[in-house]
Amino acid sequence: MSDKLFEECQENAVSWCVDLIRINSENPPGSEKECAEYCCRILESLGMETVLDEFEPGRANVIAYIGNRDKIGIVFNGHLDVVPAEGDWTDPPFGGSIHDGCIWGRGSADMKSGCAAVMAAAKYCICSGMDFSQKGMVLTFVADEENVNKGSIRLSKAIPLSGDACIVAEPTGLEVNYGNRGFTSYYVRTRGKACHACDPGKGENAIYKMAGVIQKLKDFAEELECRKNPQLGTMTMSVGMIRGGTSLNMVPDFCEIEVEARVFPGTDAVTISRELEKLLGDEAEVVIRSNLLASLVPEDSDLVKNAAACVEKAVGQKAVIGKFPACSEASFFSVGYRIPTILLGPGNIQTAHKPDEFVPLSDIRKAVEIYSNMIKIYCGKRQKGEMCHEQSGRKN
Description:
- By secondary structure, the chain is of the alpha+beta class.
- Helices cover 33% and strands 25% of the residues.
- The protein has 9 helices and 21 strands.
- A 6-stranded mixed beta sheet has the order 1-2-6-3-7-20, sandwiched between helices.
- Helix 1 (4-21) runs antiparallel to helix 3 (108-127), helix 1 crosses helix 9 and helix 7 (302-315) crosses helix 9.
- The two termini are 20 Å apart.
């Protein structure tokens, strides 16, 4: 692609990314509405039917449609919140600085660049006169992905969706990621009997009880890592937080830890919690904290093949196909809506959630091309099964 409209859309993606970074949407506390309003203005200007769904004060999702609402070809998803900009930054975290071939700032990779590239691809396809009457397109940008997924939960309850394919624009470095493990988490609590620490034998120390529980969890985590999936690797478990006691001179009667487990399709928080309850018996109470399911499509699926061909065209070399190492909201689409879903976006997840986050400008521009070609495949008037393999420019 080298026409003026396409080049304009590529530069739109860069400038829109900068603008979104400059809107502080840290979560917590969570205030995505201004970002959502910004995206709505852009999408409405393209002629898309756009909904701003403010489900809590200052917290909103964006849903934008074009074309056939009954037959959706492709769905794009992104999130508008970012993790807090803690630590020492070289550039202002909400400055959206451009230098050294990159945009710098909180959310540049995770994932405002992905959202911007999706909107720019939509602009290119719409403004170039593409016909969406056979298959429509939907864009969803949600709040609260970085916390407890309120935005996607709201979306799943309020908006019916179907489609042939979905792309979650998480930062994959333009690799085609066929899925990710689920993220489940738990509170594990022990209880004792408080007394003065001068005579601890009269009480029952909940922290001591937790020490034994933690050792059992460590052994269970080692066993969990023996469970393997050919695409997603191994399951894991980790204790990440501990709280207990109110005063040094008091034997604590309560202790709580927070535990996370990364799981495969077919396993959820209920499954793991039952195993933990059996393991710990009366020693501890297990309470489910969160349950985000795994997402997975076959590596040889048409969706992966189509995406790989489009990546190959844009980057000039064979696409890398693999798993997304972190968790994502892909399962809201692959499991909840039953839409085949992949993760594919600009930037690298390894630069996210830490100071000096950045995204290469080249990634953003290439993402616009990749997304545009995917829209043509799933919404354009093509023969069944036709992919973009025929496009030139490959290098092996």
